[in-house]
Amino acid sequence: MDFLIQRLPLYIDGAWITIQLTFGGCALAFVLAMVFGIMGTIRHWLPRAISTVYVEVFRGIAALVLMFWMAFALPQLSGFRLDDMFAAILALGLNVGAYGAEVVRSSINAVPKAQVEATVALNLSWFQRTRLVVLPQAWAQMLPTFGNLVIELMKATAVVYLIGVADLTAVAQNMRESTGETVVAFIGAFILYYLIAQVLIFGMRMLERRANRKLGRTPPRGKSLKSLAQSTPVGSAGGTF
Amino acid sequence: MWDFQWTLQILPDLLGALGTTVQITFLSYLIALVLGLLIAIARRTPFFGAVLHAATEFIRTTPLVIQLVFVFLLTPAHITPMTVGVVVLGVHYAAYTAEVYRSGIEGVAKGQWEAARALSLPARRTWGAIVLPQAIRKVIPALGNYLIATFKDTPLLIAIGVAELLTEAQRIGSASFRVVEVYTVVGFLFLLVSIPSAILLRRLERRYAAV
Amino acid sequence: MPPSDTPVNAESPGVEGQSLIVFDDVVKRFGDLTVLDDLNFSVAPGERVTLIGPSGSGKTTILRLLMTLEKITEGVIWVGGEPFSHMRRGQGLVRASEGYMRERRKRIGMVFQQFNLFPNMSVRQNITEAPVHVLGTPKDEANARAKELLDLVGLGEKIDAHPTQLSGGQQQRVAIARALAMQPEILLLDEVTSALDPELVAGVLDVLREVAETTDITMLCVTHEMGFARDVSHRVLMFDQGQIAEEGPPEQIFGDPKEDRTKSFLRSVLDNGF
């Protein structure tokens, strides 16, 4: 235990890199997922085709292969060398974004057709319909799977030490090499990964709860704690007031 | 910029490594399928089930690559990296397939268990003839997803020096200092396997969704 | 190429100034199924028309065509003397583009059987969202109007409630307020009480009676509520197999139907306790 406590600052540094990679990758993946996911729901064939190509290509290539390509092949091809952190974030974001785009697409398609018809009856434009009605409703459906993808992305960051980024796994490796204490050195990293994952899971649950509350699926604020604790889904139950 | 001669020259080696990668994928997946099922069943026991739940949760929330390296460092030298890789990959995905089986088992109607009880079937028959056939049928597409996922995680075995596709590519690359062709071909080989698999899987989904 | 894609006669068939809505040889097919079979009818401004008939007779399809939720197979629909399902090009007519339809359906509103309130918005937002974003109404004005409309439908105090907190009948009354907020010239009512528990039907119908009495909105109403149809409508159209079997003022259709099909339909509806 002393071993770990003494070297805690080093682990924290590594964990901080892991966290930065996770957030950077998630931000990029989120933007790509939204853009290509929404494109996948457009009736015209061209945006749909572009979306399909993006999804199949970047889902099909392993993130690590993509990372190697960006870190090693791209500099030779273009003479331009990406920062290792940036290459890692790019590869992770492109890869997870492709999974996310599928989630966005299917969640949008799962919004009841009747909701879209109501927007036609109110004469909303495609853009207004998407922004005001479709996405807010699809959002609640996306979140559980997004939660899984966030964890997958966090775990996938651990390969970055292979292209020379000093993340949590790299710290564990260095620690083992400098002290010879394999078990202890790795347990430190495992614990931190586990904690990061738990925090991410908690955060995504909160987002999910908020999204469901917005759709009226749980009692809204302003009710007594007791009724919140009972927390039965209101659903279509009528005449409560 | 792009050297076709060189591409053709490295292709046989890369295809050979792809073969190894596919082998690793199937062996690991076999472990994941069998072990995952055992875990899903064992998780229904009171104490041991809770322990298994915590263990699979831990496996699923920590990175595969660090699990690989950790186990590799702790195994005796006479066990090959290949064996370690296959087993760790298999156990990692067993933690996922166990969840899939569990949802399938929970999806079997309560009446089926009660009917089995009413017929005084022994536990072995209840599971083997009634619950599992129904549960597994429903989760076949979800299980198929993890075959593709296993394949896409095989490059991580580079961390312990298994001669899979990416390791081989790195070897060729560092021997020749020409990496553009090598890594690009690896990317295409990945697409060559994963896009047809995805199409097959979609067919599978449609077929089992229709039932 | 389907016949309706070729330019057809661009002369408005309705007598100028007398018909707000004209269905001109309208055919609607879903695959092999013909839902509307060469249908012709017109509706005058301010007229309230009720469509009755057995299910599958094409009543709802008429409303959905007017809301551009379905595409017409053959024929032309005219609204306000201008083509609606089609648009003018040169001397002829071609299928309406999305932009054209958007412009033309501005003053048409619809209330749905299943209410279709937006669950991601409060009652207030449900009502103000379209006026603010489509008509460009200032927010304050839209809010004030929402309050007025909710008072009209008897739900003034529910303005900040969430749709899921309301009963079906209350949701439907909000949906009516939402449609009215767009100041429609034409209001389409698609079996608006069919999804409601029996005890909630009267409240919704009372609101609609009020709307009918106090405004001159043209209404097309598909309903099984024969009492309501009799009270509110100027004219009743009896549909059967995609065609009008009989039409006339409500007193005649309900009191002295001529066609056997109308008689048997009315008998079956009354037997079923509608």
TrEMBL record, chain A:
UniProt membrane topology term: Multi-pass membrane protein
GO cellular component entries: ATP-binding cassette (ABC) transporter complex
Predominant place of localization: membrane
A single BP term in Gene Ontology: amino acid transport
Alphabetical list of PROSITE patterns matching this protein: ABC_TM1, PROKAR_LIPOPROTEIN
Segments traversing the membrane: 15-41, 53-73, 85-104, 149-171, 183-204
Keyword Transit peptide recorded: no
Pfam family, one: BPD_transp_1
Domain ABC transmembrane type-1: 15-202
UniProt entry keywords in alphabetical sequence: Amino-acid transport, Cell membrane, Membrane, Transmembrane, Transmembrane helix, Transport
Superkingdom to which the source organism belongs: Bacteria
Record region (Disordered): 213-241
Parts forming coiled coils: none
Cited InterPro entries: AA_ABC_transptr_permease_3TM, ArtM/GltK/GlnP/TcyL/YhdX-like, Ectoine_EhuC, MetI-like, MetI-like_sf
Gene3D superfamilies (UniProt xref): MetI-like (1.10.3720.10)
Recorded family membership: Belongs to the binding-protein-dependent transport system permease family.
Protein name per UniProt: Ectoine/hydroxyectoine ABC transporter permease subunit EhuC
Organism in which the protein naturally occurs: Nocardiopsis sinuspersici
Classification of source organism: Bacteria, Bacillati, Actinomycetota, Actinomycetes, Streptosporangiales
Automatic annotation (TrEMBL), chain C:
Cell compartment(s), UniProt: Cell membrane
Main location: membrane
CC per GO annotation: plasma membrane
Assigned keywords, A-Z: Amino-acid transport, ATP-binding, Cell membrane, Membrane, Nucleotide-binding, Transport
Ranges of residues in domain ABC transporter: 21-266
MF terms (GO), sorted A to Z: ABC-type amino acid transporter activity; ATP binding; ATP hydrolysis activity
Bilayer topology annotation: Peripheral membrane protein
Domain of life: Bacteria
TM region positions: none
Record InterPro entries: AAA+_ATPase, ABC_ATPase_HisP-typ, ABC_transporter-like_ATP-bd, ABC_transporter-like_CS, Ectoine_EhuA, MetN_ABC_transporter-like, P-loop_NTPase
Family to which the UniProt record says this protein belongs: Belongs to the ABC transporter superfamily.
Protein name as it appears in the record: Ectoine/hydroxyectoine ABC transporter ATP-binding protein EhuA
Organism: Nocardiopsis sinuspersici
